[in-house]
């Protein structure tokens, strides 16, 4: 006796393929959304972490500033117009005499796009960065510069990053964004950090 085997028809196969394709597309879309969200959160965390570290580092160094004769903490704009930064001295070997001149400043060269690294070597550096340098003048500090903070953008209302008040109180207001040259939005939010520090040795 012959047994007739049951098989799928061409229509059933086509429907199965269509359903599987739909399910695969749906999961692919969900995966893309999750991945995009993860990348956005990672970028935000990196930007804020870098800014917090830089603010803490600068604050600690300001607290250990030393008076150099009659010189206190100074704004860099008093040395070179248009540069947002601060300048102070330190006794780096604890012998009672200042022997290190520290400079922090924001670069003043605008990059062409998010991937342009050339602005770091023009003017006083890339405006997306806060730099630290040591030297008797800003030229020497620029030659020995290190990037302290990245992703820097203009503060709201054009407020300076570095401000100097009475009793050498330094106020730092730093606004950062994952893509500094791109307009802000849900996936490119801006974050503003503020702190104050004053030299303890004055």
Q: Which helices and strands, and how do they pair?
A:
Blueprint: H1 10-63, E1 65-66, E2 74-75, E3 85-90, E4 100-106, E5 130-134, H2 138-143, E6 146-149, E7 152-153, E8 162-164, E9 170-176, E10 191-197
Antiparallel strand pairs: 1-3, 2-3, 3-4, 4-5, 5-6, 7-9, 8-9, 9-10
Structure description:
This protein has 202 residues and is an alpha+beta fold. It has one domain (41-197). It has two helices and ten strands, in the order αβββββαβββββ. It has helices at residues 10-63, 138-143, and strands at residues 65-66, 74-75, 85-90, 100-106, 130-134, 146-149, 152-153, 162-164, 170-176, 191-197. The strands form two sheets. Strands 1, 2, 3, 4, 5 and 6 form a six-stranded antiparallel sheet that branches. Strands 7, 8, 9 and 10 form a four-stranded antiparallel sheet that branches. The termini are far apart. The model has no long low-confidence stretch (mean pLDDT 87).
What's this entry about, in short?
The protein is built from two helices and ten strands, in the order αβββββαβββββ. With 202 residues, it is of the alpha+beta class.
**What kind of oligomer do you see?**
single chain
Q: Main beta sheet, described?
A: 6 strands, antiparallel
End-to-end CA span: 108 Å
**What fraction, in percent, of the residue positions are helical?**
25-40%
Number of strands: 10
Domain count: 1
Gyration radius (Cα, Å) is 27 Å
- Strand-pairing-aware structural class: alpha+beta
Overall spatial form: elongated
SSE series: HEEEEEHEEEEE
Number of helices: 2
Percentage of residues in DSSP E strands? 15-25%
Q: Please, what is the average pLDDT?
A: 87
Uncertain runs are none
